[in-house]
Amino acid sequence: MSVHPHVQGFFDAATNTISYIVKDPGSDACAIVDSVMDIDYAAGRITYDHADELIRQIEDQGLRLEWIIETHVHADHLSAAPYIQDKLGGRIGIGSKIMVVQDTFGKVFNEGTEFQRDGSQFDALFEDGDTYRVGEMDCFAMYTPGHTPACMVHVMGDAAFVGDTLFMPDGGSARADFPGGDAGQLYDSIQKVLALPDDMRLFMCHDYGPNGRDIAWETSVGDEKAHNIHVGGGKTRDEFVKFRTERDATLAMPKLIIPSLQVNMRAGKVPTDEHGNPVLKVPLNGL
Ligand SMILES: [Fe+2]
Prior knowledge:
Blueprint: E1 6-12, E2 17-23, E3 29-33, E4 38-40, E5 45-47, H1 49-60, E6 64-69, H2 81-88, E7 91-95, H3 98-108, E8 124-126, E9 131-134, E10 137-143, E11 152-156, E12 159-161, H4 183-194, E13 201-203, E14 218-220, H5 221-227, H6 237-248, H7 257-264
Parallel strand pairs: 3-6, 6-7, 7-8, 12-13
Antiparallel strand pairs: 1-2, 2-3, 4-5, 9-10, 10-11, 11-12, 13-14
Helix pairs in contact: 1-2, 4-6
This protein binds fe (ii) ion.
């Protein structure tokens, strides 16, 4: 908590995702959290402008990339982790419960036996409380299921990257109705985050600028505790579960869920057909 990493956020307007470069203040080591690969789904075209910006920043600042962290298997954007790893190195890490997600969506997408459901596409699988280092900086992963079964919050010094556990105080929380999601679990996970020190910085994975405010992605535990519209001010578990379940029933599927899941459950690698050509499936009535 005494270590204060330099955190740079990069907003992707197409998916309202924020990717982060987190620099250890004591060395030239850094980590990326939740990168984005650009897709024009209608055209079936993938590009790398957002990832190239992260790469350029790391190169310009002379940093050494040690970790490429995924807070979870995102359903609304594609990860660029392998593209970045090819250029800069680093280890790709995600929560060990990725195996549950791979099993669920391996079935939905009717993947063959060549699709491994053991998380082996990733370099590191984190368990609850696992520690690692970015340069000299101590980091740990906290298991926070509810939005998905594999969600983790990553704490790096005095900064926590909350994935889709929480949104900004005026945004509330993420949905909990994807396969394996659970509103009660999400509430419990949010309480774990809110039990961190009040002045810990919190960095969001998404922001939608509710009520016309400018996009923002940094808040604190104290702010969330006091002001979060879904869980702040001492909302009970029952109140949250009722609200979340009713709200989720009204939400449409994210536009990019079909390509996102197929790519992200492979650690950001695009699947290929039997000839090795990159290709995505659209299973009908499967989700
Ligand atoms: Fe998500």
